[in-house]
Amino acid sequence: MNRGSWTAALLLAVAFHVPRATLHAQAQAQAAAQAPAAPDTMAFYKALDLEASGKYRDAAPLFRSALHTTAAVNALLGLERVYAELGWSDSLLKPLDTLIAAAPREETYRTVQLRTLQSLGRDADLRAAFERWAHDQPTSSAPYREYARLLMQRNQITAADSVLARAKQSLGTTKDLQLEVAQARAAQGEWVESANAWREALRSADYLEQAAAYALAPTPSATRQQVRDVFLAPPIEVPARRALSDLETSWGSAADGWTALKDLPPDSISAEAWSEFAKRAEADERWTLARDALESALKWKRTPALALRAATAALNVGDAAAAMRLAPMADAHGDSTLAAREYLPVQARALAALGRPADAERLVAAYDRFLAPGARASLTRTIAWGWVRTGDMAHARAALAENGVEGDSSDAAGWLALYDGNLKTARTLLRGGTESSPELALALGLIARLKVDSSAAIGQAFLALARGDSAGAAAQLVQAADRTPGGRSLLLATAAQIQLARKNDVEATALWKRIIVSDPDTPEAPEAELEWARSLHRAGDTAGATTHLEHLILTYPQSALVPQARRELDALKAATPSV
Amino acid sequence: MSMYKLNKFKQALGAAARRALFVAAGLLAVGAPAALAQKLLVPMDDAQQNHLKAYGLTYNAIKAGASAEWLLNYRGGSFLLSDTPDLRRQAALAGITVEPIDNAKVADIRTEIAANNMEAVPLEKAPKIAVYTPPDALPWDDAVTLALKYAGIEYTPIYDDEVERGDLSKYDWLHLHHEDFTGQLNKFYLTYRDVPWFIDLLQKNTATAKRLGFANIPALKKDVAEKIREFVERGGFLFAMCGATETLELAIAARNVDIAQSFIDGTPMDPDADKKLDWSRTLAFRDAHLEQSPFVNSMSDIDGHQVNAAGRQQPLGTFTLFNFSAKFDPVASMLVQDHRAVINDFYGVTTSFNKAVLKPADIVLASEEGAPWVKYIHGDYGKGTWTYYGGHDPEDPRHQIGNPPTDLSLFKNSPGYRLILNNVLFPAAKKKPLKT
Description:
Chain A is an all-alpha fold. Among the domains of chain A are: about 1-175, Alpha Horseshoe (Serine Threonine Protein Phosphatase 5, Tetratricopeptide repeat); about 410-495, no CATH class. Chain A is about 75% helix and about 0% strand.
């Protein structure tokens, strides 16, 4: 066995299962290490030192002599390692025969024997060694476990499964072999059976959650619900639910990942699961899920750090009232520096979002002397944003003016310029800003491509969007389209995009039609055609969708959307499998 | 665009759009931007953007009555089709590369063909295709149905009921894939006996056997195998892959011998089964030896790779297509048309065929250099022909049960899949005697 395969074997042993005998041997070794070495184990410790310094040839005879001492089990493992390094693994077989004859119930000897025979490629002898072990210890699951694992390592899944089936016959149960059963079933594509076995295995080994999620990740979509049902079935068990949560996330549905966790009974273990889930959701900017998970964790035990995270998540999903409730200024317990640093930004943002910029202004002023300079500028922008939301642009401008030059060149100033219809200034400031958000992407995507430098209607559209009036924003963009001939298709496409986000396919379709008819030579025309086809497909009109995709391909052969249209056309005609 | 679709599209756009669309449709109708040439060359070398759909274009052109020729060894086995607006449209929709050429260019091509190991074979009639496949979805897929669906070639799924009532005579071309004609359900009993899909498979096959008057599944499958043999003998074209190749032969050879293990029919295999096999009736193999153990997932020594038999499995390599004389051996040439001569091998229940069990008349189309097995074979039988292609899925070399099916839009230039589609088209080229 070379170093790589030895490492793999070792990792497998550590990751999955440490046989009882080995644990016993480890305990023995630890005790021996703490006590003065008995004369008969001196050779073993000297061998360990030689092995550590890479002197395998010198270590081998010492390990071999230690096989006849109380450190025999560890000496054998050492001998296995150094022989593997030297390429002498076949020399291990004779000592193994002697050791097994002397101690037939020692599982480590048997396991090493199987490993050695496998590494030497002696399949018939491997099988025979397994048979002997199973014969000598008819009530032990160890022979089946170790042999099945070796077969699975070599991707001989069917053979491993036969061994497990035999274990069931011989032992009457595979209760102690659930991990191996789970792996074998997953490797054979028996996803539901694998899920059942994983759930059983997780009861006694909760550290296998990630292994379970990894093994079940390739489950085809048609079978996923059955796998879900296995993990969701009562009773509620935290390891099973955590495994399912990981699995759902790997399947691309973090929301279902939360569904797996939200019913856990409130206790410290569940709170930890919720907090960890929230951490991942925060990293992925899935704020609704993060908020729900953090609020659940808070119900078990309230800590300032969790409360602040929950408030931030609430703010990011637009629930300002919840944010104010979750992280009140009072939580700073009179520590003004802490209040200014941690709680004031949350409260100011929430007040601005609730349309109470004057309150935010007063609150910021109250903590003014505790604020770092950068923090103040950020809070000023927050207040300006609050004024924008109330439609008071004069106040917004005045708030930004307090920041002086920095205020004039900030992202917020870029937004104000955009709301004023000053596209030229907005283009410069927003492009060079530090902010990153879907709204910015939408705005930049539009104004960067328009040739006009000012448009009050476009400014009004984005102002409406900032105030949460998406229908008004779409209507304003359509109005702007009529006054902006060069950018008409782009403005209509943006309006359609907003209508689509509002799930108003009827309005969106009307806009796509307009683009295709009025501006068939623009890049937006194939885009409109593709979106129209998708909308029809969602509505169940396969024929209509097909017609539009075909029209796109034939009419705009140079469009970058043609390969995608072909893929979707194939899917509609069931020419490609739906996975 | 068909008039029906055009009308629907016009309605959808509304009156305001009609003028604009009329112009677009009018342009298409005259083959915009270029006027129609005399022929469309469908190149099958590296210039082709979508090799697999090119077969569908050609098949459907023949089916629609258009003239078509297969230019063997010319630019990867190109097709020469009549230039029609509909073909151009189909090619554009599918992303198939076509080159409009005039008569002068056609003459140049014919001159080049005449002077080299090339041939132009007229394709006359689109074969009627049947795929022998169970009506219920099983946790594995079939490369041929994937290829046919992706290429847009129509086929009819048939199974035991249809074969037993004589429906094979309705088709020119029959495909078999994963079926175990020894009736042992691929020995999946060994590992899947408690799995719902296997239990369902077992129950349905048993019920079919009883309904059709057979004692058990092996008896039914042997009879189906016999009818398939007769189909070929009468002039049918058979294309089989994976386990169907090996088990069809075993079932035919074992017409009067019990080769099934007791788990499936209640009686053990005849201890002298090996000696009693009648290889004179089989299509491709002879003198193979049965796997006697019910616990070894292998049927016989026909397969060289033995993928499911622990300790016997052989590694995958590459296989090389043979180069035949296009003028003197057009059938074999058609079957190996490809833009790649060396192709990565792929496992199946039966991956390859040991040379030792091939009949002397078998034509080897592809093999692995230095290996004792071959990959792709062909031969005549009675008035028909058979072709066997080992392995399960050319683009998923280690396809496992439960794996998702291969999305061929990601493998549209697959040389391994091209071999399957060569088989679909080659019956169109051969004038075959009428079946009785």
